[in-house]
Amino acid sequence: MAGQLSLERKDGFFVMKKKVIASVVAGVCCMTLAACGGAAGTTPETKEAETTESAVESAASEEVTTAAESTSASEAVEGSDVDYIKGKGTLVVGITDFEPMDYKDASGNWIGFDADLANKVGEDLGVKVEFVEIDWDNKILELNNKSIDCVWNGMTLTDEVKTSMECTNAYCNNAQVVVVPADKAEQYKDKESVKDLTFAVEAGSAGEEAAKTEGFKTTPVTAQSDTLLEVKSGTSDAAIIDLLMAGAMIGEGTSYADLAHTVELNSEQYGIGCRKGSDLAKFINDELKKFNDDGSLKQTAEKYGVQAALIEQK
Asked: What is the structure's pLDDT at 51?
């Protein structure tokens, strides 16, 4: 047989090169003509052979085109997270249920200061924004696996976070605070007075880190909102959560009117985390600067009562 079959491995399958397939089909055509005595003119057999050759050539051409497109997409992913996100048409944001930053309205839609800003960034990217609830303790793994594109959920810029992620500039001030039953708040005014309590903390959070720093006994739970349930039910003596969350979720007019926050354990700042080396962090920085300058950042903060915590974007 003229030519040697060449196989190319593609996505787990073997694909014959176009030029070899054409040679094989040509050989089949010659054999068919010989069997018919070499008669001139078109016969049903030659028509079938021609149709087969055309179909094979078309399929081979499509395969080559698909391979080129796949290579182009792969290069875009490696070169730029922004291009990768635009290419797939979705910005996937990793969050937890954390009012006033990310939480659901009565219709089940994600809203909040962070959620609204993420949606504005998605609009400028020209993509849909998808919010995915994650296990906070696994946020770095979720980013690296590309299950999510960024963590935008009132995330404290700890040393671990800054080492493991490409982070934006800080955009909000915050603190970790102690939450206790309101009728016991007067007993707990400083770190010394709370040192023997058992604290509910979100696993992997800045609250858990603050508790460890102080040497407090802790009970890890899945989300910050769960820590409040622990205190309300009496399972834990106290909780450690973000000051911004405490301002939105406990006290008069909330679902936790019988809880109060007392001691501030530290001061910290929020940032948005992307994959290490990602150009998405710079894109978001530019967006926050634009929102700062056009007044929409402050307007959104006032909508959710966090304007006092805003950090000016320069």
From this structure: 52
